[in-house]
Amino acid sequence: MRAHTTCISPPELETVQLLAHLDGRADREVETHLEQCPHCRQRANNLAGFQEHMTARLYRLSCPSTIELGEYHLGMLPDVQREAVRHHLDTCPHCSSEVAQLKSYLSELTSDLEFSPLEKVKVLIAQLVSDMRPGDLSAPFSLAPVPAGLRGEQEGPLFYRAGDAQVTLEIQEDPQTPGSRTLVGLLIGIDPAGFQAHLWHGTERLAISGVDELGNFSVPDLEPGEYQLILSGPKTEIHIQSLHL
Asked: Is the dihedral of CA 197, 201, 202, 205 positive or negative?
C-alpha cells in the first residue's frame, strides 16, 4: 500500500494537537481530522512510539543493573543493597520480569551444573557492548587469525562485559565442515584457570571446551542457530544468554 506523504486536508495538525490526542484531550475537530487523514494519523502513531521509547529509557534510569539483579536473586548482595533492590522490585514490573526470567533460566540448568551444592558460585549475565574497541581491552587481542574467505557473516568480533570479565567472540566458517561454523572466544579480565565453555541449544548441552591459560577457547562444527554460552569457573559463571550463529 502506498504511504500518504501529505495531509489530505491542510493545514496538517500541529504537534501540540497530536499530543492532546494521545493524552485523550483533543477536541472533536482534531479527532475527525485524524480519522480521515492517514498522514496525520501516521504522525500521531510515530509520536506515540517516540513517547513510549523515551518513557521506558527515563523510567529505567534508576533501575539496578542486570548483574545487580542476578546477585540479588542469588542472595549475594549486602543487606542494605538487597533491601533497596527488594523495594525497587515491588514497584518496577520491568525488573521484576527480568528477575523472573533469570530465575526460570537458571532453574532449567540447575540439574546439569557440575558444582558442589556447598560451593557458592557467582553468576554474571554478560552484556553485549556495541562500542568497545580493541584498545578498551586489558589484554592483547589474541584471537587466532583466519584466512580471508573463511569468516562467517558476522561483521567482526562481538564484545561482552560481565563484571570485571570481558569476553570476545568471533563466528567463523568451519573449514573442515562446509556449512558449519566455529565459535572462537577469548576471556580476559579474570583468571581463566579452571574455566570451561559450555554451549547450549535450548535445554540441551551440545559441547564443552576447555579455556586455555591465555583465555582462548573454541567450539567447532556448529549449525546456524541460536545458542547460550556459559563460561564456568571454580567460583564464577559467565552467561551469554542469546548467541546467534
From this structure: negative
